[in-house]
Design brief:
Layout (H helix, E strand, L loop, with lengths): L4 E2 L1 E4 L1 H5 L9 H14 L3 E6 L12 H7 L7 E6 L2 H9 L4 E7 L2 H8 L3 H18 L3 E6 L12 H14 L3 E5 L7 H14 L4 E5 L7 H10 L4 E4 L19 H11 L1 E2 L4 H15 L7 H4 L10 H9 L1
Parallel strand pairs: 1-10, 2-3, 2-9, 3-4, 4-5, 5-6, 6-7, 7-8, 8-9
Helix pairs in contact: 2-3, 2-11, 4-6, 6-7, 8-9, 10-11
Zinc ion binds next to loops.
Length: about 325
């Protein structure tokens, strides 16, 4: 197509997805999936997380995965960290960028990282120091920013307060995350329209979960506000073990397909992505939510039934 409209997608399936798998995904298979995702052309991949191995045992092999993946030039390899210990581990393992995690709501932050929001912000100050010393850029994700499974609506002023603190610490990029798929498109638009003019130098992104089938509509609403960076997950993997009811992220190949049909560029080879989704389905051993890998692309055509062909021929 080629309209010159570029959307950047960060693939998060091997982190947000593999973290909640019931079975530990063998390290070699994680590496295989990251390598396949790199080959499809993603410019950003959130490979794993450097958290406490007891909190997320599924990603206890973070160092080994980071050290063994093949680095495609042009791809930024990131990992999620909750504190300075995680940041040091991630930098030692060679990440290109650090993604931090804290929640806008107290209850989810306590459930997820065992800290109040104020304690998390203190830890992120330490993360920022470690990252700045190492010259590694920072992206601050704000979980439950569009709704909390414990508290419900999260005041926009609370999100704004956290954004302000992160900006002061030197975070150049901030991700608004809808952790359990509670957001709707009008709310997404309201949120970005409120925050963007207040922090014009911040690079924004949106992290969605498709729990209530609103992920792609939410992304389109954010695009209307000028957002061009989104997280998605191969096959629609994803979920947070500390957020009840959380299910998969927006599915990468469904999103790439939608954007392609609309005339946007992502740099991602959709056919290779669909093949990768099928391979991931084999690895996890159950049917993933992704729809395009089942239905085929919109350009798929079926044979006309015989009696219709006869009528057509007679026209
Ligand atoms: N990686 C490895 N170990 C870590 C760590 C990290 N990033 N952060 C802390 N630890 C270790 C400490 O060294 C300490 O070890 P010790 O007991 O041997 O001295 C121990 O964990 C306790 O440290 P503390 O700071 O008190 O951590 P905690 O037990 O309160 O746990 C987190 C806090 C943030 C480390 C933990 O809740 C966590 O990893 N959560 C991640 C949740 C997540 O990834 N959710 C999904 C993503 S949305
Ligand atoms: Zn998520």
């Amino acid at each position: 197509m080629g309209t010159g409209k570029w959307i950047t997608i960060c693939e998060v399936g091997t982190r947000d997805g593999f973290q909640i798998e019931a079975e530990f995904i063998p390290t070699e298979q994680k590496i295989e999936v990251v390598n396949r995702l790199s080959a499809t052309g993603f410019s950003k991949i959130e490979v794993t997380s450097f958290v406490h191995p007891k909190a997320i045992p599924q990603l206890r092999d973070a160092e080994e995965v980071m050290s063994k993946i093949e680095r495609r030039p042009g791809t930024t390899y990131t990992a999620l960290v909750p504190n300075d210990k995680g940041a040091r581990r991630a930098i030692d393992a060679g990440v290109d960028k650090i993604h931090t995690v804290l929640s806008a709501s107290e209850s989810h932050n306590l459930a997820n990282v065992n800290m109040t929001v104020a304690e998390s912000l203190e830890k992120l100050q330490a993360v920022a120091q470690v990252a700045h010393e190492a010259g590694v850029p920072l992206h601050g994700g704000i979980s439950t920013a569009l709704g909390c499974p414990f508290e419900g609506e999260v005041p926009l002023r609370q999100v704004e307060f956290i954004v302000g603190r992160l900006v002061d610490m030197g975070f150049e990029a901030i991700g608004i995350a809808d952790t359990t798929g509670m957001a709707n498109p009008a709310q997404v638009k309201r949120t970005f329209e409120y925050l963007m003019p207040k922090y014009p130098d911040t690079h924004w992104s949106l992290h969605t979960h498709n729990t209530r089938a609103m992920a792609i509509p939410n992304i389109l609403a954010a695009m209307d506000c000028g957002i061009t960076d989104f997280d998605s997950s191969i096959g629609g993997l994803g979920g947070c073990p500390y957020a009840p009811g959380a299910t998969g992220n927006v599915c990468s190949e469904d999103l790439v397909h939608c954007l392609y049909e609309m005339g946007y560029e992502t740099g991602i080879d959709l056919d290779a992505l669909i093949d990768t989704a099928k391979r991931v389905e084999e690895i996890v051993g159950y049917t993933l939510p992704g729809q395009v890998m089942k239905a085929g692309k919109s350009e798929r055509r079926y044979q006309v039934p015989h009696h219709v062909a006869e009528r057509l021929a007679a026209l």
